[in-house]
Amino acid sequence: xxxxxxxxxxxxxxxxxxxxxxxxxxxxxxxxxxxxxxxxxxxxxxxxxxxxxxxxxxxxxxxxxxxxxxxxxxxxxxxxxxxxxxxxxxxxxxxxxxxxxxxxxxxxxxxxxxxxxxxxxxxxxxxxxxxxxxxxxxxxxxxxxxxxxxxxxxxxxxxxxxxxxxxxxxxxxxxxxxxxxxxxxxxxxxxxxxxxxxxxxxxxxxxxxxxxxxxxxxxxxxxxxxxxxxxxxxxxxxxxx
Length: 241
Fold this sequence. Notes:
Layout: E1 2-7, H1 12-27, E2 35-40, E3 52-54, H2 55-63, H3 67-83, E4 95-97, H4 100-111, H5 115-129, H6 136-146, H7 150-158, H8 163-175, E5 183-186, E6 190-193, H9 198-212, E7 225-227, E8 230-232, H10 235-238
Parallel strand pairs: 1-2
Antiparallel strand pairs: 1-5, 3-4, 5-6, 7-8
């Protein structure tokens, strides 16, 4: 079963939503048969490339949220993250910027077989350590951390090899109904908007599994069955042969 989750790197609900999905998969009875694939949903084009701005300054400007309301909103997600094992989880005391290059880095890492690792690492760096993840040098340091070849990563990011790939993922999410992030699609059948709690995600995983894996009822020795090696005669019937 495949679970796809569209996220923006600097979205605090996306980092928390990714963590909640991981917890749901860990609790799922068939979790070892679930493939989680992270997709890009960049929302930062309002910011110029090459510069960053503090969350305290950006949020009032972009969303009209300031003062006590800003403290309460960011404090809520920080508290939820701490309750669920993500500590520290820095939202208010952080910076935001254009994330397109970071998404290209994640696309490159995905092609190299490091999709979940790269997303986990970038979320941990950004929210857990308040590290900038917007510039080339910062992304090359992340490449070192997850075992990507540094100079090849530099070439990939410099020549924009995955620029269209990132745009395609954004548009694919929008075509499925995403208007924001996180946005999760389970087995191509269930779309889930927002950072739902792990219990809700677990219920959806179970429902999707049951839809495609019917329960087999074993009737006992009296059930006739045919297989590759022939037909088995029920025990009761065999006694009269």
